[in-house]
Write a structure and sequence with these properties.
This protein is an alpha/beta fold and 742 residues long. The chain is built from 33 helices and 13 strands. It is 56% helix and 8% strand. The N and C termini lie far apart (71 Å). The model is unreliable at 1-16 (pLDDT under 50). Pathway: Protein modification; protein glycosylation.
């Protein structure tokens, strides 16, 4: 609106008041040009002289500004704008008493002028009289740059008092007074971010940066929102812009590292973390991040993967030593800042290194617990129902909602167990809404992990279960504390936690190899069967847009459903071999994380090129799909290609629900045995492989023999009922809980 108004002013004939109006509206350069033009033609032009007075004040020449205003007052003592000019000059010079007298004189002559009211409000704010400032601003109407500033300053005071909603209203009024106030847009974005209205906050920050691209605070805050949304590339670009202006900001370097880790650039992340540590040697979160960043998100080669693991173990030991020699009370903030998720993709026993990692987490969180005065766990109770808590940050995830949470909540005996569910997340979801009617209590929306810690502690639980320790910072911090007498982890993250505060690990007999106890720092409890009472999704399938992806009707469709980081470089030759032998076919990889998928695609392209197999003729990376579209894709798929060494439970179960053949890999550890365990439970052992050659042979057999594929489909459909609603596994869990808490 302001731009159009200014354009209108520029296109019409100039009047005596215009330079002053332009100045108050914030069009400083235009105001000066118009005033100079006026004064060249008429040295006594009042509006031009007043404009010059205000400009002189802005440039530190208050004495000259006062002289001009006094000259105008000599001819008209009731000139409110001249009194305002004098008041402004005294304000800038820090002379509050004469400033107040001049502004009072201005208000007596024009009590409704927004520019005068704004200056009076600013003076009142400088004197700590916020209520008086609010009174002045409540009477101000119209557009004026200084009026916007006054509203903005009052908003800051209100925010300091915790009056966030009132602060937002003042910022909205600031923008009504001056829509082009970039700082007001930025501050409004910050307030809306604090209020949890991220979409509106993003719009405010984006508008601020359009108006003032160098407004670094807006760039930083917008980058934080981009990180919250996992928009890693956009966040990194904003943080680089910010660091161009603030190269010594250690916190910004740290967050750049976080964004680059999300974008699968581990080397760039390490450089950013190390830059933060060079600036602030005590930046423990950056030190922590640099250790985890030794593990490449998507390794370019087996050598890089092996080197990364060695570097991670070496630097973890150094971090442990550093943390144990420091006395920083806030070192616990590093726990979970980055987590070594990539270890799951490396098919080795990581129990030893995760014990060291877990011990450090527990030690640091113990310092927080001591300061927060966390009480000891509740003592054992007799003759009462066992109080069991389940703490999850990913209650909406398919594996947890369908495999673990729903089954436990549905089938644990209410006469023996009192269930309390804690959702560490900001958004309610269907799983939590369903659970609310089936548990003794549900606490959700606990965005602050410390609030969740208090809630769990106050519940005085006998047992607390963390289904997915290691997948997010909040649950890791909570699990590193001792909040109940018995604390258990589940296979939502299929690696040992390494935490001395976790007593047992809930797994399943179908998924664990011989001597599996060696893979855990906790006591392993392998429940019968799949260890859960799973129910099928029952999703109504939608046809996926195969033609859009360049998939012809005659193509054999092979879906590789894992996350990009789960595909190790040692398996690249396997995918090339399958593509070559199954042609015409399309191998579909899912593009769930753009940065990770791009690196995997780059590596696979190189492997296909080395084998002289055309990549684009055989491979597609497709976007994230809805549950309905994914079900439709599974129904069209000829073979699901289980991820080698890092299998997916819910993917395999969805394939079973759709009757889709699966070729599974028999991994050495839990994380690599979900699909194979499911197939063994269906007595389909012949489709399980433990070598690349055997894996490829099985895929080729299914691709080439339509009758065989149909027979396997029929076998899956006929037998899959045995996998569902396994109440016995939950009953076994109940017996275990009673035994452990007895």
């Amino acid at each position: 609106m302001l731009d159009k108004l200014v354009s209108y002013w520029r296109s019409r004939s100039i009047t005596a008041e215009e330079p002053l109006a332009l100045y108050h509206a914030g069009e400083i350069e235009q105001a000066e040009r118009v005033a100079s033009d006026r004064l060249a033609r008429a040295a006594s032009d009042r509006g031009a002289l007043l404009t010059r007075a205000f400009l002189l004040t802005d440039r530190g020449r208050g004495k000259d500004a006062i002289a001009i205003a006094q000259q105008l007052l000599a001819g008209n003592a009731r000139d409110a704008q001249a009194w305002l000019a004098i008041g402004r000059a005294h304000v800038v010079a820090g002379r509050r008493k004469p400033a107040g007298e001049a502004l009072e004189a201005a208000l007596q002559r024009d009590a409704g002028d927004p520019a005068i009211l704004a200056e009076a409000a600013l003076l009142a704010l400088a004197e700590g009289r916020q209520d008086m400032a609010a009174q002045h601003l409540s009477r101000a109407r119209g557009k004026a740059r200084r009026l916007a500033l006054a509203h903005r300053e009052l908003a800051g005071f209100l925010l300091q008092r915790g009056q966030v909603a009132a602060s937002e209203r003042q910022l909205q009024q600031a923008l009504a007074a001056h829509p082009g106030d970039a700082i007001a847009h930025a501050n409004l974005g910050a307030v809306r971010k604090d209020l949890g209205r991220s979409d509106e906050a993003v719009q405010s920050f984006e508008r601020a940066l359009v108006l003032q691209p160098q407004l670094s605070e807006a760039a930083f805050n917008l980058a934080m929102l981009r990180i919250d949304r996992r928009e890693w590339g956009a966040a990194a670009a904003l943080l680089r812009d910010y660091l161009a202006q603030h190269p010594r900001d250690a916190e910004a370097h740290y967050w750049l590292g976080q964004a680059l880790m999300g974008d699968a650039d581990a080397a760039g992340a390490r450089a950013a973390y190390e830059a933060a540590v060079r600036i602030d040697s005590q930046h423990v979160r950056a030190r922590w991040g640099a250790v985890v960043a030794q593990l490449p998100a998507v390794a370019a080669s087996e050598h890089e993967q092996a080197q990364g693991l060695q570097a991670f173990e070496r630097d973890l030991d150094r971090l442990c030593n550093w943390c144990r020699t420091q006395t920083r009370a806030d070192a616990w903030q590093a726990v979970g800042a980055q987590q070594p998720l990539q270890l799951a993709a490396i098919e080795e026993n990581h129990a030893a290194v995760l014990r060291r990692y877990g011990a450090l987490c527990a030690e640091l969180m113990a310092t927080w617990a001591k300061r927060a005065k966390v009480p000891p766990p509740a003592a054992a109770r007799t003759g009462e129902r066992l109080r069991v808590g389940i703490v999850s940050a990913h209650g909406s995830g398919p594996s947890l909602a369908h495999a673990l949470l729903r089954g436990w909540v549905r089938h644990l005996d209410r006469e023996r167990f009192e269930l309390h569910l804690f959702h560490v997340g900001s958004i309610a979801n269907d799983a939590m809404r369903w659970a609310q009617g089936h548990v003794a209590s549900l606490q959700q929306g606990l965005r602050d992990w410390s609030a969740c810690a208090k809630a769990v502690s106050d519940a005085r639980l006998d047992v607390v279960i963390y289904p997915e320790v290691g997948r997010d910072a909040s649950t890791l911090r909570l699990a590193s504390l001792r909040l109940a007498r018995v604390q258990l982890a589940g296979w939502g993250h299929p690696l040992t936690t390494g935490l001395p505060t976790i007593d047992g690990y809930l797994s399943a007999q179908a998924f664990e190899p011989v001597a599996a106890a060696e893979h855990y720092s906790e006591t392993l409890h392998a429940l019968p069967g799949l260890g859960c009472a799973y129910r099928p999704h029952g999703t109504r399938a939608e046809a996926p847009p195969l033609a859009t992806w360049g998939i012809a009707p005659g193509d054999r469709l092979l879906v590789a459903p894992g996350l990009a980081f789960q595909y190790g470089p040692s398996e690249d030759a396997l995918w090339v071999e399958i593509a070559r032998r199954c042609a015409p076919c399309k191998l579909l990889f899912l593009r769930r994380e753009d940065g990770l998928a791009a690196r995997l695609e780059q590596r696979l392209r190189a492997a296909f090129a080395a084998a002289q197999v055309e990549f684009d003729a055989h491979v597609r990376f497709v976007p994230r799909l809805s549950q309905a579209a994914f079900s439709g894709l599974l129904q069209r798929t000829d073979v699901i290609l289980d991820t080698v060494g890092c299998s997916g439970f819910d993917i395999a179960m969805q394939a079973v629900e759709c009757g889709t053949p699966v070729v599974a890999w028999e991994g050495r550890f839990l994380r690599g045995r979900f699909a194979s365990g499911i197939l063994r439970s269906l007595q389909l052992d012949e489709w399980i492989a433990d070598s690349h050659a055997a894996y490829a042979d099985r895929v080729v057999r299914l691709c080439e023999d339509a009758a065989l594929r149909e027979r396997v489909r029929q076998q899956i459909v006929a037998r899959r009922g045995a996998l569902y609603d396994d109440v016995a596994s939950v009953q076994a869990l109940g017996a275990l809980l009673l035994q452990l808490a007895g």
